[in-house]
Design a protein that fits this description.
Layout: E1 2-7, H1 16-26, E2 30-36, H2 43-47, E3 50-55, E4 62-67, E5 75-78, E6 92-98, E7 101-107, H3 112-125, E8 131-136, E9 149-150, E10 158-160, E11 163-166, E12 169-174, E13 176-183, E14 194-200, H4 211-221
Parallel strand pairs: 1-2, 7-8
Antiparallel strand pairs: 1-14, 2-4, 3-4, 5-6, 6-7, 8-12, 9-12, 10-11, 13-14
Helix pairs in contact: 3-4
Length: 222
């Protein structure tokens, strides 16, 4: 299954026509989008398929998924938030299952401890299913989750002005194998799309979170 994830950069980055062009060139089975605005609702009129957008409270953008294949309505998963005064509205992940694989489309917080907590919360929610957590992690440095493998491209994916290029867009998988991973041209966004070829692992060799650990994480982050 070919999967692409792209942070579109809200209103000033990739337009719906740019996304349609990417779909025409790459023909993905699943396209996950971060910072998707209401303009992306017109995507199916350009390329057909199926699209669902999850808006965020207090933001003009949210998360989106497109696929040429029918998929059940995605669900929203609220993520751990900062307890500091003046914090931003709680972020949510978009959870959807396509062809037996559960995808968590994410745009995580900038706080490095907080975005690791958010990842652990998502992993505990996936219940050991063949799954992929894909999107803009906003994470600097190594990220690890028990039972998950980092299969995303290793090159920088965020390019902005004088800021040093960093690898913000990532993919952690559980019970999946990845035959290829690459970062594509950024186009009008400051993020490069990442492309992955995923399939359910025959031996499910990467294991999973032990049930008692999943239960502990669930109690802590509920």
């Amino acid at each position: 299954m070919k999967v692409i994830s792209w942070n579109l950069l809200r209103l000033v980055g990739a337009a719906v026509e740019d996304v349609a062009t990417l779909i025409g060139l790459e023909r993905p089975d699943v396209l996950l989008m971060q910072e998707a605005t209401q303009h992306m609702d017109a995507l199916t009129t350009l390329v057909g398929g199926h699209f669902h957008r999850l808006s965020w409270l207090g933001r003009i953008h949210g998360l989106g998924i497109w696929s040429p294949h029918h998929f059940p309505r995605p669900t929203a998963l609220s993520l751990p938030a900062s307890r500091l005064p003046g914090r931003l509205p709680r972020r949510r992940a978009q959870i959807v299952q396509v062809a037996g694989i559960t995808f968590a489309n994410v745009h995580l917080s900038h706080g490095q401890l907080l975005n690791r907590r958010q990842l652990a919360h998502i992993a505990a929610t996936l219940h050991g299913k063949p799954s992929a957590i894909i999107g803009d992690y906003n994470a600097v440095g190594p990220v690890s989750l028990p039972g998950f493998l980092d299969v995303g491209p290793r090159e920088p994916t965020h390019l902005s002005g004088n800021v040093m290029p960093v690898r913000l867009d990532r993919c952690l998988v559980h019970n999946l194998s990845c035959s290829s991973a690459a970062a594509l041209d950024a186009g009008p966004s400051d993020h490069r799309p990442i492309r992955l070829e995923l399939r359910i692992a025959e031996d499910q060799a990467c294991g999973g979170l032990p049930r008692n650990r999943r239960d502990r994480l669930r109690r802590f982050y509920r």
